[in-house]
Every structure is written in structure tokens, then in C-alpha cells.
Design goal:
This protein has 2 domains: 72 residues, no CATH class; 82 residues, no CATH class. Strands 1-3-2 form a 3-stranded mixed sheet. With 167 residues, it is mostly helical. Helix content is 50%, strand content 7%. The protein is built from 9 helices and 3 strands.
Length: 167
């Protein structure tokens, strides 16, 4: 599934809620901040860059890297967001929740994570999410991105919770 299949509007609205911008890159043009190269999404500061042929998985994954970061850390991001395993695990879990929020669905997110080679201890993204992601969910809850029931907080609620000292 590509961004053309999903459209730019839904992801742009969701990202805006987190203080991020989705920048549409012209077809065939180089994607700024792309770690893997075209057609994969890129990240620089508070912006996610994508073309119509960018895989939705790539857009969501890179966007989630920025969503988990406070604004002062986002400003320093160019192409690569983290070397932290805990943060990467949280990004993968958040990606599944965001996929649901955008109507892509968690089944698609699980399949995409598996296809991309995320080899979790239990052998699949679904097994990890359902049976082994306690630390990632705790990380996301501590950062105000999910509630105690492991549901995605709406962006404005996530900001309010994080600003109240949940870090």
C-alpha cells in the first residue's frame, strides 16, 4: 500500500495534531531525509517527507519516530531518529496504533512490519504486540502517547498529558 492509496490528507491531519508536518514530494524527486532512499519516507526536524509512491509503512514508521520525540529532540533529527532499542520498540507499537487510527488497520501494520524484517523474540509483529510489548507500552504511556488501556491518546490529549509531567 502506498501513500497514493491512502491519500495525503488523513496522515497530514494526524501529524499536525502532534505538531508535525507532512511534506508532499513531487513524483520522481529525491525525498529529503530518507534513510533508505527513494521511495521511502524521510524525516528532518518536525517534517515527514513522502511521495505518492512511498509505502504507507514507511510513512507511518518515520512519522512515529518523530511523534515519540519531544520538540527539542525533533529539531536535531535529520534522516535517523534514534539508536535506542526501547524507543524503536515503542515506535513499532505506536505504528500499529496509528495505522488503526488512519484506517490502514493493525493487520496491515503487522504484515508490513514482518515484511520489513522486524524480528521480534516471538517471531512476528503480532505476537510481539499482543504478548511481549509490555515495556514498549509502558514507554508510550510514560510519554503520554497511550492510556493505561493501551489505546492511542488523541494528539491533543497526548500533549496535555505529557506537558503535565508524565515524562
Amino acid at each position: 500500500m502506498t501513500v497514493a492509496d491512502l491519500g495525503f490528507d488523513g496522515p497530514a491531519r494526524l501529524l499536525a495534531g502532534y505538531g508535525l508536518a507532512l511534506e508532499r514530494v513531487a513524483d520522481g524527486a529525491a525525498i529529503p531525509g530518507s534513510y533508505w532512499g527513494e521511495p521511502e519516507a524521510g524525516i528532518i526536524g518536525d517534517r515527514v517527507y513522502a511521495r505518492a509512491d512511498t509505502p504507507v509503512h514507511s510513512l507511518l514508521h518515520e512519522a512515529c519516530h518523530l511523534i515519540v520525540l519531544p520538540p527539542e529532540r525533533r529539531a536535531a533529527v535529520h534522516t535517523d531518529a534514534t539508536d535506542s532499542i526501547a524507543e524503536e520498540d515503542a515506535v513499532c507499537v505506536l505504528q500499529v496504533l496509528v495505522a488503526d487510527a488512519l484506517g490502514v488497520g493493525r493487520e496491515r501494520a503487522f504484515a508490513d512490519l514482518d515484511a520489513w524484517g522486524y524480528s521480534f523474540r516471538l517471531g512476528s509483529a503480532r505476537a510481539y504486540f499482543e504478548r511481549d510489548a509490555d515495556e514498549a507500552f509502558a514507554w508510550l504511556e510514560a510519554h503520554g502517547l497511550v492510556d493505561a488501556a493501551r489505546r492511542l491518546r488523541p494528539p491533543q490529549d497526548a500533549h496535555r498529558h505529557a506537558d503535565a509531567g508524565a515524562h
